[in-house]
Write a structure and sequence with these properties.
By secondary structure, this protein is of the alpha/beta class. It has 10 helices and 16 strands. The protein has a 6-stranded mixed beta sheet with strand order 10-6-1-2-3-16.
Length: 367
């Protein structure tokens, strides 16, 4: 994501640019770092070469902000070693809340240099910071409908220090930041690839993606490859972990591990898990109703669940029953070939948490 003209803060192929293979996608979330490496499998499409994750200490990343760079670098180094990747180019994600995006209309026929100058001029109207404090990028979407003399351009800007924090993490870990994407865009890229495999390629389908993170659930609604609605809701899987901590007097890390393994007392399902599932269902149905009341849309045809919380036992069925909408847990690796080192059974339980990391890794194939 370059800065204002002539003062690029990073040696990138730009936010929307072409990635340099080989490339790994590195998703830095509140609770963990996740790495995915994909490869071109020729006529067989794409191959999942490797994936891995490492937990982050609580407080290392808060609301998308890097609070403890050393702890994050340590986790990234561990995940690189665990995965066995030799790739050094990395695609990183910025939280949607840290990036300002705006579609603008500009005259067609300008050179790249003229576009840069014009975009920078236009950006000052939409960005509540001085331009020398931001990293700025743009992508030409295409001609404006019914106006051959104009083009539509997507403008993206983020505070420079937030971008540089992530670049510093990559460099301290022995990596080169080749692409800086927006996390919601990366998730959509991974989702689009899965939807494209469905009958009719999902044409005309209103698809809701709930990414259930540790603290926040991000809802994106897509129609024919375009995002028509986005909103974050303050609800996540840590609520269940905290309930386990309070009920059984466990340390947070121990409670998180036992939540995933199921190693909990007999009353856990009825006393702890069931109320959490009801709360989750209420949050999802409220989010759907808010979508209906604040947009022209009156239906959702398919719900996909992603994130580390997506496979909590009973969550899928509870949400499907309450919403009365077809609901599935998404695997961003559907239809991919698997390298010999990837364990298919383990991947089934891990995959929903890797939507963003997979979308970032897909930038290797961007045109």
């Amino acid at each position: 994501m370059p800065g204002p003209a002539g003062s690029a803060s990073m040696d990138l192929k730009v936010l929307f640019g072409i990635a340099v293979p080989p490339l790994v996608g590195l998703d830095i979330s509140t609770s963990s770092v996740r790495l995915v490496e994909l490869a071109d499998a020729g006529k067989d499409g794409i191959r999942l070469e490797r994936y891995a994750s490492e937990a982050l200490p609580r407080g290392a990343v808060t609301d998308g902000n890097i609070e403890n760079l050393e702890q994050v670098v340590d986790a990234v180094r561990r995940v690189i070693k665990k995965s066995g990747t030799r790739a050094r180019n990395v695609a990183l994600g910025m939280p949607s809340t840290a990036v300002i995006t705006k579609k603008i209309i500009l005259p067609a026929g300008m050179s790249e240099e003229q576009l840069e100058v014009q975009v920078e001029s236009e950006a000052s109207q939409y960005i509540p910071f001085a331009l020398d404090e931001v990293s700025l990028d743009f992508d030409v979407i295409g001609p404006v409908a019914n106006s051959a003399d104009d083009i539509e351009v997507m403008l993206a800007a983020a505070r420079r220090e937030k971008v540089e924090d992530r670049v510093a993490i990559a460099e301290a870990s022995g990596l080169k930041a080749s692409v800086m994407d927006i996390e919601s865009y990366a998730a959509r890229a991974a989702l689009d690839r899965v939807v494209a495999q469905a009958p009719g390629h999902g044409a005309g389908q209103v698809i809701a993606l709930f990414q259930i993170g540790a603290h926040v659930t991000h809802l994106s609604v897509m129609l024919d490859g375009a995002t028509v609605y986005e909103r974050e809701h303050a609800f996540g899987g840590n609520a269940l972990t905290q309930d386990i901590v309070r009920a059984y007097g466990l340390a947070f890390e121990d409670a998180e591990a036992r939540k995933k393994s199921g190693d909990l007392p007999a009353n856990y399902t009825t006393d702890i898990l069931a109320p959490f599932l009801e709360s989750a269902a209420l949050e999802v149905t409220r989010a759907i109703q808010f979508f209906f009341t604040s947009t022209p849309y009156t239906r959702i045809d398919q719900i996909f669940l992603a994130g580390g919380c997506a496979l909590v036992p009973g969550l899928l069925d509870t949400l499907a029953n309450r919403s009365r909408i077809p609901t599935a847990v998404i695997s961003p690796f559907n239809g991919m070939k698997l390298a010999g080192t990837v364990r298919e059974q383990q991947l089934r339980s891990d995959a929903p948490a890797y939507l963003v990391a997979c979308g970032l890794a897909l930038r290797r194939f961007a045109q």
